[in-house]
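Predict fold of GNAT family N-acetyltransferase; 349 aa.
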Amino acid sequence: MTSEPVPPQPTLVDGAVTLRPWRADDAEAARLQHDEEIARWFHFPGVTPSAEQQGAAIERWQRDYADGRRVVSFVVEVDGRVAGSVEVRRTVGRDATGHLSWALFPDFRGRGHAVTAVRLLVDYAFGDLGLARVEAYVDPDNRRSVRLATRAGLRREGELRGYESDREGVRRDAVLLARLADDPEVGTGEMFRAALNAGLPRKRTISQGLVRNERGEVLLCELTYKRYWDLPGGVVDPDESPAHAVLREVGEELQVPARLRRLAVVSWLPPWQGWDDAMLYLFELSVAEDEVARATLEPREIRAIHWADAETVRARCAPYTARLIEHATQLLDAGAPTAYLEDGEPPTW
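Predicted 3D structure, encoded as tokens:
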């Protein structure tokens, strides 16, 4: 118990939405509006709580507020009707951090009331409670709540595997969304761009180099960590251009100077063996054959390098790499412009 006096729980208002403390006489109106969606996302064993269960919950929320405001739960009212609840819970062991949760009853969903309620709660958490960070953990399938949190100013920060168990005891993932006290104000362009950037999908980007000698053979790397031979190159680092990445990778792995000639193809790669989908940029590179002969290989990644004809490419490379090389060399020999491929082949639309 805290020794400091606890101020009365306030009432917060924004238009038609009001957040106020729970009262004992709210129990019946609240419990009868529970539905399957609330039970699903909160992992409740049943849909409609009993009067005793709802009354006990209200008493618990009142005690938690009195106990140093470690949990603050508000009734959400819309035009004077009990419409749901929002809550902020201080996170044990973490300084100035709170855990947000919310639920709106069926008749009040889809009209923006929940966003308003969560924004009021976040402002209260930063202002009255003095928190520096608030978080929400949302099931990835609960897309309504993920969108709601984003509109309320929280940013998507990642996905936690096996975060909690559902009603059947199955471990479920959770999307982590959070807002800091000094984040840009909700409704500004800066906040909109930051939230959108955090929530957009991020495709992996791969950059590889096609090096050919006078005989038309392709330079391939025999790798230490997989059985297939592959083109030189690798994954593009965050905030790095694909062109810079391929030159960096060739320099690090082979220690030979390379020059960009042109972008040969861009190929979309579908998910494969545990990897998410990716975009592959294949650049034609100019590297002198005598420089290749003097290459110094990165021993943790490359066992050897080889000049490979078309038959060797098909025998030694993964099928999608062989397709990529075949189509890229045909396009380059024909003087065709940069092409778009999917899984190493021209798309069939």
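The mean pLDDT is 93.
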